[in-house]
Structure formats: structure tokens, C-alpha cells
Amino acid sequence: QQRDKLRQYQKRISLNLERERALARQLLREGRKEKAMLLLKKKRYQEQLLDKTENQVSNLEQMVQDIEFTQIEMKVIEGLKIGNECLHKMHQVMSIEEVERIIGETQDAVEYQRQIDEILAGCLTEEDEDAILEELNAITQEQVELPEVPSEPLPEKIPEASPIKNSPKPELVAAS
Fold first, then answer.
1. For range 12-31, the mean pLDDT
2. Local structure of 176: helix, strand or coil
């Protein structure tokens, strides 16, 4: 508010300076040199006041900036204080011993998983390999279906038939 009031005061003085300068010219034209000189002295004094006012405005603006920055700093400090309290509460909940215990359990679990991975990755003995091959053979034997063998004895002599009727069919030749 003070800054705004000082700005209004500066405008008012600036307007007065313009009027007094114009009045001093008019007085010089009229030949009233002493009165014009007095008016110019008054103008000079008001210019000095205007400079002082400008310095005060600068000081006020600097003070406003300092206050705003201090408010920001206070908010940062308050945030740090709240964060510090939160960390303190978290430290009370979780002790160093608890953290060390959890880390130890995690390392044990990782080591156990590594051992499992090694077993699954191929660290098998020859006996395990042989057992796996036997199981694979058993599975493949189950999957192959062989045709049934006739239980009747085979004839000793095959009756002769005409060569055209008994010639193999082309699709059977290609399949065999």
C-alpha cells in the first residue's frame, strides 16, 4: 500500500514539475526573471523529493521481495520440520536390528532360490540323467501304436492272379 501511495505521489509531483516548467517559461517571456528563478528553485527541490521518493519505492520493493523470500524459506523450513518428524516416527517403528534381520532373511531366501536354480539348471548326476532317459523311452513307447498281428498262420503258397489285377496301386508304391 505504501508503495502504491508513493507511486501516486510521484505522479502528482511529475505533473506539478511540468506545470511549473511551463509557468517558468511564461514568466521569462513576460520578463519576470526573479519569479521564474524562484519557481525553478522550487521545481529543483521537488525533483530532489522525486528522487528520494524513487529511492524509498526501491527500498520498499526490495523489502517486499525479502519478505516474500523469507516466507518461502519459512515454508521450506516447516516442510523440513514435518519431514524430519515423519522420519523420526518411521525410525521408531523400524529399528536397525529389524532392518538387519529383514536383510538377512532376504539374503537367505535369495541363496535358497539360487540353489534351486542350480538344481534345475542341469547340475544332475549321471543316475538322474539315466532315469530321465528311461522315463523318456517309456513315454515314447506308450505313444507308438503298433498294428495288430494276425493270429492265423500265413498261407504257404500265394494263389496266382492276373498280373493286371494284382499290380500295386500307384499311391501305395509312393507311400512305401
1. 85
2. coil
The DSSP letter of residue 154 is P
Q: Nearest CA to 13 among 72, 53, 65?
A: 53
Checking if the pLDDT of 73 tops 80, the result is yes
Mean of all residue pLDDT scores within the chain = 80
Q: Which long-range contacts (C-beta less than 8 Å, at least 24 apart) are formed by 45-51?
A: 46/13, 46/16, 46/17, 46/20, 47/17, 49/13, 50/10, 50/13, 50/14, 50/17
- Do the Cβ atoms of 61 and 3 come closer than 8 Å? yes
Q: Identify the pLDDT of residue 6.
A: 79
- How does DSSP classify residue 167? S
Give the E-state strand segments of 36-121 in sequence order. Answer: none
Instruction: Give whole-number Cα distances, 77 to 91, 141, 151, in Å.
Output: 21, 79, 100
pLDDT in tens, 77-97: 999 999 999 998 888 888 888
Q: Per 3-state DSSP, what percentage of the chain is helix, strand, and coil (rounded to 5)?
A: 80, 0, 20
Tell me if 9 sits within 8 A of 53, measured CB to CB: yes
